[in-house]
Design a protein that fits this description.
3 strands, about 10% strand, 11 helices, mainly alpha, three-stranded antiparallel beta sheet
Length: about 220
């Protein structure tokens, strides 16, 4: 199976793919001095961050700090190396002889950078949407795996339960705010129609909403208190 078959994308301009696979060691040793994938890594990293940020922003009702931590778990060398191994990207790299002898095909830094370059290649060849689809093939599974253990999105859980009855409506109401700007403390009530079903307090509004939803779920018997 070819790399294009493994990534489920066929390049209109194969030169983008070749450049994404070209490590600087190969470029330096080659008489033709082809452009390496270093510039593509830069743009690929930005595309990766945008695609993941957009997905988790719409998927999880969490505050900025939690969203940032989730994104960091995906946009990191460890995760990218694992994604690259799934498509056997290391086997396709163009490496210089020295880098080849030192095991560059299995070096996390090289292979994860090439994965970012591959994202860029897909973007340059087909636009953002196919690049986003490629990223999310890997990222969504990783996100579900990692967030399952890292935190529970109580607001989403509560919403999924309540929406089974279309006539019911959940709202979050800020009922208290105190402290200086650098150390605010927020208190939130979650209401089912007009009835208070949970309360939460935190240093962020969204954190307070999460805790209010958690209390509501506990009172509803959906969670063990």
């Amino acid at each position: 199976m070819s790399l294009e078959e493994r990534i489920q994308y066929t390049f209109k301009n194969p030169q983008y793919l070749r450049r994404a696979l070209t490590h600087s060691s190969f470029s330096n040793e080659s008489r033709e001095k082809p452009e390496s994938n270093e510039r593509m890594e830069f743009l690929g990293d930005a595309i990766l961050s945008l695609a993941v940020s957009d997905y988790i922003f719409h998927r999880y009702h969490l505050d900025e700090g939690d969203l940032t931590r989730i994104r960091a778990g995906i946009v990191c060398e460890k995760s990218l190396f694992r994604f690259a191994q799934e498509i056997k990207l290391g086997e396709e790299l163009l490496l210089g002889k020295g880098e080849e002898q030192m095991g560059g095909r299995n070096r996390a830094s090289i292979v994860s950078d090439a994965f970012e370059a591959l994202i860029c290649a897909i973007y340059l060849d087909g636009g953002f949407e196919p690049a986003r689809e490629f990223i999310l093939r890997f990222a969504t599974e990783e996100l579900e795996r990692s967030t399952r253990h890292a935190f529970v999105d109580y607001k989403t859980m509560l919403q999924e339960i309540i929406q089974q009855n279309p006539e019911e409506k959940v709202t979050y109401v800020l009922v208290g705010e105190e402290g200086p700007d650098h150390d605010k403390h927020f208190e939130v009530e979650v209401r089912l129609n007009s009835n208070v079903i949970g309360r939460g307090a935190s240093h962020s509004k969204k954190g307070a909403e999460q805790l209010a939803a958690k209390e509501a779920l506990e009172l509803m018997g959906e969670l063990k208190g």
